[in-house]
Amino acid sequence: MHPQQDPDRWSRLQAVAGEALTAAKVGEDAVAVDLVTGYLSGSPEGNEEIRELVLLLFSECSAMVAALGSGGATPVKMQVFDEDGQEVPIDDADPPVRTAIRTLLAEVHGDEEAAAEQIEIALANGQPQELATVVLQALRWTVKLAVECAMRDLPVSPWIATALDE
Question: Total structural domains in the chain?
Answer without folding.
Answer: 1
